[in-house]
């Protein structure tokens, strides 16, 4: 009797960003090989061969030429990447976290009709609602930095809210990055499939706008003003007016900015646009108020104000970047923090546009007296003048002393505001669990970045009996229970390597950043407090303790020592990938076992790690499921080393910490590992590394990936 044997199904994995890059490379070369692709994409040949098989499955599915995999890789016949992307279905592609968040924010920002919900976005991207919720959480934090917010409306679904001007600028940026036909470097990193999907959204958003008519409108404005407008500026003006119309149709208006508007009202551009604005109002059935007219004037001025050697869009729409650069440059030479002064930022942002207009059109302030600033603030005037070099390059003109003095007034006021907010130098008690090497790294970071004095660095068990009479603040790497500290004192918990949230907590407590220059009076204060100068080591320790990284401690070397990086200690033999489900104790034994097997430690070191966690809890968990395991060396460490264990399934450590990336550390000399800790922190926060780590299957791939991201 014959039995029908089912045909073996071809196995395939969903496509990802790396697959598209392979196609792009092959599309540009007549032929190449696996070794070339693995080097170019920072992976191993085995992974590339697996990817080629996977790609051929989808090429057959879309009825396109497949890739021949003989000695060289080549397409069987003519291949067109654009055809492949058009044939692709969203369900066939695995969006990375970065790609999903990019898609979601654009989808929400340009949505005009549908109610966008978590369920709807999950369906469109082919992922779970839980994944979308995580993406939305990331997006909320990202756009919050731009003074925008992501909110949910019961009728309209997800919306981007906040400053209307910033919303329009963000929309305009996406149109410029994706739709205007001139090259832009910042789109190169965006995968082509994502680009295709986003272009569909942008095209749909403007389908009800007659862009040809808007082109003619802008041409008429230029003609009336007798101004030359570049093709790029012309495109941006049309796009901005299109966005303005769409936003007004949705009932969204910009806020008035009196300082800038007063200047714009006096320009010829305002007169010309005011006389023609009824054309837009009539065609699109909208009412364009004076403040909206002023926004068009603002953009039109930029179209013929900047030097044509530079991009109009980059220099006008993103003037904020230029202002931030100027502030940061001046901040290097001030004794107080001015980069966070929003009054300074807003003042300069509104000041810079009329300044450019005045300079380009040879307009001078009649009767403006600034001799006092020029004569009494010579040092600050010189600093501000140097900081304006980028602005001079942008506009192609030299900035006069009078104009520089006007900028200096803004900075003088900001410095005075900052001085009023100055607080005392905090005396810090630094508390760790065990392991002075990593705690010493934290001490160095704090001393280098903040205007503090570290009174002592102690293990956790000593904090109960410590004399806190002259301590202002406790910084700890582990939780300290309320009530066990006798003195009423603030306690801040931080990571062994400072994160952005740690820095935010320190700022909120009132701890000031360390100045770029050291005051002579502070040095004299320390010298005066020293009983004598016979013990130079003690004097040196006092200076280092007070000023941290601002002083190079070259007493033991010539000052040219270079930090050893992670790659010096994390060798291929110290990496393991495991798909076995284990508890935290077995996981510690496995990670420590790598160091044990390779001769870095003895068994007592692993027992100490487990004992520390049982006694003090987990205290070295970094972002994105990373944990550092170590203990005091005692007599259990033979040499410094690092082992990396990558788990397929998360392991729950005490405190409900879910971990997949375990680094076991043996520290023979505390100075050796500071560079490695910097690399580990960067890896734990690097989205690109984390996304690629999801696809690795063996230790060699992990080794190549770590090398790729730590040797950039």
Automatic annotation (TrEMBL):
GO terms for biological process: phosphoenolpyruvate-dependent sugar phosphotransferase system; regulation of DNA-templated transcription. Residues 426-518 form the PTS EIIB type-2 domain. One of its GO terms (molecular function) is protein-N(PI)-phosphohistidine-sugar phosphotransferase activity. Residues 568-709 form the PTS EIIA type-2 domain. InterPro entries: BglG_antiterminators, Mga_HTH, PRD, PRD_sf, PTrfase/Anion_transptr, PTS_EIIA_type-2_dom, PTS_EIIB-like_sf, PTS_EIIB_2. Transmembrane segments: none annotated. Residues 202-310, 314-421 form the PRD domain. It holds the Pfam family PTS_EIIA_2. Keywords: Activator, Repeat, Transcription, Transcription regulation, Transferase. The keyword Transmembrane helix does not apply. This is PTS modulated transcriptional regulator, MtlR family.
């Amino acid at each position: 009797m014959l039995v029908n044997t089912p045909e073996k199904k071809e196995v395939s994995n969903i496509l990802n960003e790396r697959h598209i890059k392979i196609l792009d490379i092959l599309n540009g070369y007549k032929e190449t090989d696996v070794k070339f692709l693995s080097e170019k994409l920072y992976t191993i040949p085995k992974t590339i061969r697996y990817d080629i098989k996977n790609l051929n499955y989808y090429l057959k599915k879309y009825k396109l030429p497949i890739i021949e995999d003989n000695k060289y890789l080549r397409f069987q016949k003519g291949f067109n990447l654009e055809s492949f992307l058009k044939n692709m279905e969203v369900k066939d592609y695995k969006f990375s976290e970065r790609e999903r968040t990019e898609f979601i924010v654009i989808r929400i920002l340009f949505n005009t009709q549908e109610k966008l919900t978590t369920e709807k976005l999950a369906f469109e991207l082919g992922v779970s609602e839980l994944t979308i919720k995580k993406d939305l959480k990331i997006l909320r934090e990202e756009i919050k930095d731009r003074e925008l917010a992501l909110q949910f409306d019961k009728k309209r679904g997800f919306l981007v809210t906040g400053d209307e001007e910033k919303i329009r600028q963000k929309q305009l940026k996406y149109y410029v990055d994706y739709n205007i036909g001139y090259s832009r470097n910042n789109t190169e990193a965006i995968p082509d499939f994502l680009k295709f999907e986003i272009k569909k959204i942008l095209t749909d958003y403007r389908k009800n706008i007659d862009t040809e008519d808007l082109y003619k409108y802008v041409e008429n404005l230029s003609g009336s003003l007798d101004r030359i407008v570049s093709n790029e500026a012309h495109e941006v003006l049309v796009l901005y007016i299109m966005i303005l119309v769409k936003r007004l149709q949705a009932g969204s208006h910009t806020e008035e900015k009196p300082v800038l508007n007063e200047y714009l009202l006096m320009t010829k551009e305002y007169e010309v646009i005011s006389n023609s604005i009824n054309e837009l109002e009539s065609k699109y059935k909208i009412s364009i108020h004076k403040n909206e007219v002023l926004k068009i004037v603002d953009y039109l001025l930029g179209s013929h104000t900047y030097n044509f050697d530079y991009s109009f869009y980059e220099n006008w729409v993103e003037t904020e970047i230029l202002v931030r650069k100027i502030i940061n440059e001046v901040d290097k030479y001030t004794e107080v923090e001015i980069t966070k002064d929003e009054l300074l930022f807003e003042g300069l942002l509104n000041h810079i546009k009329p300044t450019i207009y005045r300079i380009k059109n040879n307009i001078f302030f009649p009767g403006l007296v600034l001799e006092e600033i020029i004569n009494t603030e010579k040092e600050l005037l010189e600093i501000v003048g140097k900081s304006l070099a980028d602005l001079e390059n942008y506009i192609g003109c030299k900035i006069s002393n009078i104009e520089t003095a006007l900028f200096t007034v803004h900075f003088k006021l900001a410095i005075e505001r900052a001085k009023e907010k100055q607080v005392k130098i905090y005396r810090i008690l630094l508390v760790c669990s065990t392991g002075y090497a990593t705690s010493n790294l934290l001490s160095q970071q704090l001393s280098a970045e903040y205007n503090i004095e570290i009174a002592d660095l102690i293990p956790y068990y000593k904090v109960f009996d410590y004399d806190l009479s002259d301590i202002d603040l406790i910084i700890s790497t582990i939780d300290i229970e309320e009530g066990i500290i006798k003195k009423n004192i603030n306690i801040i918990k931080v990571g062994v390597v400072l994160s952005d949230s740690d820095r935010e907590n320190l700022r909120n407590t009132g701890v000031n950043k360390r100045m770029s220059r050291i005051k002579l009076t502070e040095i004299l204060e320390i010298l005066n407090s020293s009983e004598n100068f016979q013990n130079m080591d003690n004097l040196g320790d006092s200076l280092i303790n007070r000023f941290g990284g601002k002083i190079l401690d070259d007493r033991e070397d010539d000052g040219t020592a270079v930090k050893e990086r992670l790659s010096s200690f994390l060798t291929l033999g110290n990496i393991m990938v495991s798909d076995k489900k284990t508890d935290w104790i077995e996981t510690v034994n496995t990670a420590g076992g790598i160091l044990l097997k390779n001769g870095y430690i003895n068994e007592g070191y692993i027992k100490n790690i487990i004992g520390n966690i049982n006694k003090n809890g987990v205290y070295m968990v970094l972002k994105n499921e990373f944990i550092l395991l170590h203990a005091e060396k005692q007599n259990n460490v033979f040499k410094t080393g690092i082992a990396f264990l990558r788990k397929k399934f998360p392991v729950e450590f005490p405190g409900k910490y879910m971990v997949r990336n375990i680094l076991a550390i043996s520290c023979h000399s505390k100075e050796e590992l500071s560079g490695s800790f910097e690399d580990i922190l960067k890896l734990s926060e690097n989205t690109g590394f984390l996304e690629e780590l999801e696809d690795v299957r063996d230790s060699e791939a992990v080794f190549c990936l770590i090398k790729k991201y730590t040797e950039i």
